[in-house]
Amino acid sequence: MSTRTTSKQREVLGVSALRPDGLAKTQGTFSFSSDYTADNMLWGATLRSPHPYARIISIDISEAIKIDGVETVLLASDVPGKLTYGLIASDQPVFASEFVRYMGEPIAAVAADHPETCRRALDAIVVHYEVLKPLTSIEDALNPNTPSIHPDGNVFRHQHILHGDANATGDIVVEGEYEIGMQDQAFLGLEAALAYPDSDGSGIELVVATQWLHEDQKQIADCLAMPKEKVRLQLGGVGGAFGAREDISLQVHTCLLALRTGRPVKMQYTREESFFGHVHRHPGVISLKHHVTNEGRIVKIEGTMKLDGGAYASTSSAVLINGVTHIQGPYKCPNAVFDGYAVRTNNPPCGAMRGFGVVQACFAHEGQMDKIAKAVGKSPVEVRLLNAMEKGDTLITGQPVESVAPVARCIRETDALPLPEPLSLSAGTMELPGGSGRTSELHNIKRGIGWGVSIKNLMYSEGFDDSAEARCTLGDGVATLKFATAEVGQGFVVLAQQIARTVLGVDVVVLDRIDTNIGSAGSTSASRQTWMSGGAVDGACRLVRERLFEHVAHMHGLDPLQLIIEDTDIVDTMGPLRISVSEASKGVKITQTFLHQHRKTEELDENGQGNCHVAFAFVAHRAVVDVDVELGLVKVVQIATAQDVGRSLNPLALLGQIEGGIAQGLGLAVMEEIIMQNGIVKNPSFTDYLLPTALDAPDVLFIPIEEPDPQAPLGAKGVGEPPCISVTPAIVAAIRDATGIDLKRTPVRPQDICL
Amino acid sequence: MTIFSPRSLTEALQVLNEHPAARLLAGGTDTMVEINFRHFEPSDIISLRHVQELQVFETLSTGYRLGAAIPYKQFENGSFSHVSGALSEASRTVGSPQIRATGTIGGNLGTCSPAGDTLPVLSALDAQIELSSINGIRMLSIHDFMLGVKRNARVSNEIITAIHIPKINGFQGYAKVGVRNAMVISIASACLIHNMDKSHIALALGAVGPTIIRCRTAEKWLTQNADLSTSTALTTEVIEEFGRLAASEALPITDHRSTAEYRKHAVGVLAQRLLKRAMK
Fold this sequence. Notes:
heterodimer; A: 755 residues; alpha+beta; Aldehyde Oxidoreductase, domain 4; Aldehyde Oxidoreductase, domain 3; 3 domains; 6-stranded mixed beta sheet; B: 280 residues; Uridine Diphospho-n-acetylenolpyruvylglucosamine Reductase, domain 3; Enolase-like, domain 1; 2 domains; 11 helices
């Protein structure tokens, strides 16, 4: 970071630059996707199945279409192209026609003059169902005698891993069973889109809150039977994503309605509908058996991971691979025999959510590390340090970890952070478990400390080339950036500006519209945009800088290799020339496009061996909780964390990711769960799906571990997912520590503690 | 659908008499949710916002008369937070600050959910509910007012105009269990009122039965086994037995929020803790 004193610190890399959309978002003037309207616009709405599993006998839309103000009602038979969609396997119907396979599955869509008219039209559609017994358990889905609920079968993927010596044994065997509940991403900005049909009906423009414009474009075009270039997408204001906007939700429906009516159509979900409209985090069961030496070194792991993928494939197969390939945790592990299964049930579909399979794996392996510590008489910190992975170690897939791997340092620096003061005798009710309910008394409270450490892959895996493209134009001292990177709240918009300011020495960086008029940036997920789109913007800016140097060198008869950017000036390192970038770029226009690709990855073989991941990041969490043991209520007091970030490009944005991820991981630890009974979702609202409030949020102590990764274009690793991964097991471990109860399941419910 | 906005109680009662099926709307914090979830199709609505009489607070010789449309916020930490410590504590647990600013105590009675946060307090205080119609005023004990899950004794031409509560010499306290530390629907709650002048302790439980449960057995046993004319510490045995009796009077169900077993356990713990807070 520059130490030069200027009147105003330039908002370059390494500085807590403010986001260009920050003020508007804080003041409530930012337009989210649901805020858009168009002249002559219609509203769209979706008819959804009330049953988790049923055969559709008949659908009668005749009464609905008669309602004044209703313009059209669409069914599966109205889909001109492919009848199904999906990120990996195309197995999910645009509209159900023969069977509904989960509660909330779309059957029809209507367009009308008003949302209330839409609602009445939905009420007037008569669907006759033959209700079937839903398949809702993982064990039933794995049973070969269970009839298939989908032509593609009931198992999305099975992956076997055999690494090293299958017969290796340790001095001690530690076993555990772990269960994870279904978490929702619960972004605040609900699903919304506005579609504008071309006047001749040959194409469409869609403004939508999504994580990946080009993947949406491809899937929509297939369903509409249109060439891709006829489906033009623009990013609407996105109010959070966390994985839930990776799959198609209302995109195809909105386009179909607009094309059918020839008018702009807007769709937006309610909160309740949102719970049915997007995929969730996979619930699952993990069995683990660790063979360890008397000292506590891991010799071998064995076990199974079973994930409930719900009714349709979404990204289940990739989530499973992430889960099984991270099951060893950030620890050395020479031998493994492990099996993972992702199955289809009549529960809501599950797919991407922050942490993507590694959250589930981490909850299990961290529970095991504490059991190992206990078995060998070591502290949680000692046993983790003893096994800590280092650069060059291998995963149980045989892949060497070539990323910077400061696991031990993350643990040590977290351990060095101060613990909170003991509960004071004068602590107010609000500081105790139970909070405003005034349930707790000081003498009922027990404090506990727990640890969680994790490894997370960055970018996509298994041979997928999730490249990113960006374009930079420089003229008259202004840089303009164009990319299709979805800004979902993570802050790429400010990072892109920081990169351009740093590389080009400009202060004014204009961001072009985020749309499909440039190549794909890949998904805003997998902690990948800083690395991938950051690399693309950096690359494009560097190409522009080369052209600029050539231009200046030519004007002044110099070798362009002599020139550098210093602050906002171009400086000749071998002579007196110093000219500002504004001056040098006056009247010129330089445009360069750059495609950033990461190194190639491989698919896994039948034994789960192969270099399937690109890179890794690490983090340690230490949780301190207070527990009202008699009532089973928990207050998370403090989370200390040190995270391997490579390089901190924007400390404020980084802290936002850390604190937000911790809140999300805390939710999974003690309150967030979609409750289901026989495939029926019981709590699809914020009344009963509980998210942490400010009163539930702990103090956070954070240390960034900055060891720039030479593989990363800016030296920086993705930071979005790690904060929410090991904080959940850390909190549950702290509750175990406070209560002495062997908690197997997250979220921990009051009755799990006190009954 | 017609929305009426009467400017006086007389006008409101007349409109209601002519439209007895109309929904009375005060803070709207229950009604709007019902509409959003389509549990309620709005027909005619009578807004009570401009009926000044419903906002009136009076100090009486033996207690207080609380206008039914006074929002929770006024009892939590506003002008009327002094009338009842338990009511103040219960009001704090209602929803968010926005909800507490608009939701009303009369609305809590009108909805009459077993999880209504202020209802255990009104039960333990033996509140009297004032119901007005064009025919006049009738007073009804809270115990006769609450009939079951979201059912009460208000007849269709009546408006809940006020709640009468006594001044109490002694401890009063409220506690509510939710999975989150704030802004959460009760999964079990309790209110304990110690009336030293009458040597009596009242205990009411919320969210553990079809309506609020008064623990008459536990109360009676305590009267016989402890001197309640002052606040003096009780033995562990007495406190535990009181909690056990209270839990045995609960009639909870299992639903997506919690289990019957936990709810029963929780109210027993709350009863003990409140009793300890009262007697020390």
